[in-house]
Write a structure and sequence with these properties.
single chain; 397 residues; Rossmann fold; five-stranded parallel β-sheet; 12 helices
């Protein structure tokens, strides 16, 4: 993150409040704990004496909100405290399928559509009283429906425009499937953050024998869509990159997509190298596992899978089987979306904690400070690499 003096010498836009919807309650609590710690340790004498800093250092920044449902399945939102004049950050995880509600006596799991409707209800409940409303939606709702092919809906652009019309000042997301969708709201704040720093930090903390150079490590993109991520990651690490090309059957549609016929490898020899596969989403995971299987057949030493959003829509059985067969060694996923509790018991899973990073983003945005260093964390990645390679005073924090 940027240097702390940018915060210590700046005034907040308005008193800070966070509303973590039920889908992101766990993340919201951890973010709140970090913010409380940040602001109690800040070196600014004006915090205690200047009226402009009233409410700056608090024991809790979370505002209580309820989103109950009627028996018909209809819902509403109710904020339990005043948010007048507050710089409000709404945190929502549209992929949290673990939350249920009753409809006509049946138990129904909340879908991304339900979570998005609850977000709009909370914005509506603010009733124009907040000083500024910022939405933090790590997984961009409908982000994979970002362009139109034929007679299709253009959902992601519509969502962003709808939120803009409701008065959102800033929209924060992570690893958007195609960040160019921000062109739908060119005059509004849209920040898209990536997670390579957290990936490499989690890997280095887990593996004590990685050799990070082009003779021992390569970064692989599982398809052409993830190539930009792989190129950046490989460039920062100083290693080679390669990619797979997904050859699809465009005459057939299965589950809304053209099925993959084969993965064609484009790159140099990876014999005896460790490889990192990097992508934004593990959905069913079959494409990622096919990539890992092919890399092992090409005699890759170890295969590490890094993804921002581990959805695991078809469960964990296929990953368990692939791990037992030695197709991959570790899966690194962030906690930006809901992760099945069973995943934490798997020997191959590593969680990349994002709560401190999200808390830092909120803190800096509340001061209208620059986020340039957060957008390109090259220096931080190289710093921990240097410490890791030297094996001296290695501290992942």
């Amino acid at each position: 993150m940027p240097n702390l003096h940018e915060i210590e010498n700046a005034m907040p836009v308005a008193p800070l409040k966070i509303i973590a919807l039920s889908s992101a309650r766990k993340m919201g609590e951890r973010v709140n704990d970090y913010l409380v710690e940040f602001r109690k340790n800040i070196h600014n004498d004006k915090v205690k004496t200047d009226p402009a800093f009233q409410g700056y250092s608090e024991d809790n920044y979370l505002a209580e909100v309820e989103t109950p449902r009627f028996g018909s399945g209809e819902g509403k939102a109710s904020i339990q405290e005043s948010i007048r004049g507050k710089d409000l950050f709404l945190l929502v995880d549209v992929c949290n399928h673990s939350i249920t509600y009753n409809i006509h006596g049946f138990t129904n799991h909340m879908s991304p559509d339900d979570h998005y409707q609850d977000l709009k209800r909370v914005i509506s409940a603010c009733n124009g009283k907040a000083h500024r409303i910022n939405v933090i939606m790590p997984f961009l709702y409908e982000g994979r429906q970002h362009k139109r092919n034929g007679r299709e809906s253009l959902d992601c652009a519509f969502v962003l425009r709808e939120l803009r019309d409701m008065g959102i000042a800033n929209f924060i997301t992570f690893d958007a499937h195609d960040p160019r969708v921000q062109n739908a709201i060119p005059l509004n704040g849209f920040d898209n953050f990536t997670t390579p720093y957290q990936f490499i930090k989690a890997l280095l903390n887990s593996e004590d024998d990685l050799i990070v150079d082009k003779d021992h490590l390569a970064v692989i993109s599982p398809d052409e869509g993830a190539l930009d991520r792989a190129i950046y990651f490989a460039t920062v690490l100083g290693v080679d990159t390669a990619m797979f090309y997904k050859r699809r059957d465009y005459s057939t549609i299965v589950n809304g997509r053209n099925p993959i016929v084969a993965h064609e490898f484009l790159g140099d020899n990876i014999d005896s190298k460790d490889v990192i596969i990097i992508d934004d989403i593990i959905s069913s995971g079959q494409s990622m596992l096919d990539t890992a299987r092919q890399l092992k057949r090409m005699n890759a030493r170890r295969v590490f899978i890094c993804c921002t959003f581990g959805l695991f829509t078809d469960g964990l059985e296929s990953f368990d089987e692939a791990y037992e067969k030695g197709y991959f060694d570790k899966v690194v996923a962030t906690d930006l979306t809901y992760l099945p509790s069973a995943l934490y018991s798997r020997p191959y899973f590593i969680e990349a904690d994002m709560s401190k990073f999200v808390a830092s983003l909120i803190d800096f945005m509340n001061h209208d400070a620059s986020l340039a260093n957060a957008l390109t964390p090259t220096d931080r990645i190289q710093s921990i690499l240097e410490s890791y390679n030297n094996r001296q005073d290695f501290d992942m924090n």
